[in-house]
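HUMAN: Spend a minute on the protein record below and explain its fold to me.
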Amino acid sequence: MTIEPRIEALKAKHALLEDAIVKEALRPCPDTIVLRSLKWRKLVIKDEIARLTIN
């Protein structure tokens, strides 16, 4: 079983989170708690991508 589909799915989620972060940051009054949560989730995905590509 190849891990490429899993990595591609994670990259897609990572991109969606980046879009959500940008949209939230551009709001007149961005919610810092939402931004922190989105950034944390994005980092977790980035770490998982790195772990899968190393192995």
User: Anything to note?
Assistant: The two ends are 14 Å apart (CA to CA).
